[in-house]
Amino acid sequence: MLSTTNESTPYLSLIVLLSTMTDENALYNAYPADGTGRIRLMSRVRVLFELEAEAKRYKANVVLIDSQMIQDAGELKALGQIIHSLRYSAEYPIITVGICYDPMFAETFRRLGALITIRGPITPVELQALNDELPVAFMEAVQERLSPHYHAHYSEDALRIIHSGEFQGHTMSVWSTKGGVGKSFIAREIAVAFGVLAGLRTLLIDADMNCGDQHTYLSLSPDKNIHGLASAFHAQKGKLTPQMVEDYLVHYRGSLFVLNGLYDMAMTGSRYLRGAEGEKFANALADVLPMMGFTYVIYDLGQNYHDGLHLVALRRCTLNLVIATSEKS
């Protein structure tokens, strides 16, 4: 939905989250709210957590976010959720522009769903780029809605349930001492509820060292998988970055991403995933995930807690869901 003047001239309305008055003045001078241009700055917010409400209050089409306003992992996680909830809001898309004082943050913005990034501080060159790119990006988001393949990302009922109780942004595992009790099914359904129905940035990790099958049920190609990521970690001499992890993720639907498991039994004996080396990789993965803006991370685990990948997840997850049966085991 484009905003209109009394003369019914459509324009893109902006809300901004900025760290400097210099950028604010540059934007107000370029896009005055009472002007006649096709882009107009309607309001500035002071903190990240006010951005979504303000954008909806002013019926904004675009939010501009300064990377310097994101100070820790908690704010990064909230940023990912806000970008996705705005882009997939029920009425119309609200797109995000990232202002990057640190060029490395551009990749983070893109990973979280921002359609445009520009460099900070804002100069005439960056303003010209914004003038050129904003209308194109907004139409891209509108066309996405019109596609027959578009899936509504938000369910208000699901959101009310998710935000009313225990699930307030966890890294969780689904585990049991026994096979065949529904661990994978429950992990998958939770991930779909968070990532597809509720539209929250979610990662499902198929970490069953006995052989994973989430890719089969979700109809995903297993070529990118946790074994490949562990091999890359070994090749980089124990270094793991958010971009390395991102390269091995597969997008399912909505805001759900999957790190596929070991689809071939030959992979389950890999030294990169077993013993001390497997535990080192699992800890490195657990260290990196908070930097990637996921609201929820769900591990689907095998039953043997002697495997480093299973044991590290059980130790480090904020919530472990144990599937219990009536048998003594």
Query: Radius of gyration from the CA trace?
Result: 22 Å
Biggest sheet features: 6 strands, mixed
Mean pLDDT: 85
Number of helices: 12
Instruction: Specify the helix fraction band.
Output: 25-40%
Class from secondary-structure proportions: alpha/beta
Any chance you could write out the topology, listing elements then pairs?
Layout: E1 3-4, E2 10-17, H1 21-30, E3 39-45, H2 51-57, E4 62-66, H3 73-87, E5 95-100, H4 105-112, E6 116-119, H5 124-146, H6 156-164, E7 171-175, H7 183-197, E8 202-207, H8 214-218, H9 226-235, H10 242-247, E9 250-251, E10 256-259, H11 275-288, E11 296-301, H12 308-316, E12 319-322
Helix pairs in contact: 11-12
Describe this structure in words.
The chain has 329 residues and is α/β, with parallel strands linked by helices. The chain has 12 helices and 12 strands. Helices cover 40% and strands 18% of the residues. The strands form 2 sheets. Strands 1, 2, 3, 4, 5 and 6 form a 6-stranded mixed sheet that branches. A 6-stranded mixed sheet has the order 9-10-8-11-7-12, with helices on both faces. The longest helix is centred in the middle third of the chain and has 23 residues, at 124-146. The mean pLDDT is 85.
